[in-house]
Write a structure and sequence with these properties.
four-stranded parallel β-sheet; alpha/beta; single chain; 32% helix
């Protein structure tokens, strides 16, 4: 995969919405796993080796659990892993930096 930035969403509609944004982050790709939240497999993670991964979870409990699963798995090989929920956590004071 030539893209250096990979957006991982929970479903196909979210992937299409991300693609439509045409974000200025260099060469990027948006994708999701088969069958949505709770269905991530570690065998997907090698595709993200040395990539910057950003996860876009749904704002519900299955989405948050899916976010944690994907992040834990992808972080084994990815250059970095972030989440769109990071900004929300910061706004609500739930995320602290040193």
């Amino acid at each position: 995969m030539a893209a250096q930035v990979v957006f991982i969403a929970e479903g196909e509609k979210d992937v299409e919405a991300l693609r439509a944004l045409e974000l200025e982050v260099g060469y990027k790709v948006a994708t999701c796993n088969f069958d949505g939240a709770g269905k991530w497999k570690d065998e997907y993670s090698p595709y993200f080796a040395r990539k910057r991964v950003v996860i876009f979870p749904d704002n519900d409990e299955p989405g948050r659990l899916h976010e944690q699963t994907v992040a834990t798995s992808a972080l084994k090989l990815a250059e970095s892993v972030g989440s769109s929920s990071f900004l929300d956590y910061q706004k609500r004071g739930m995320w602290r930096t040193s």
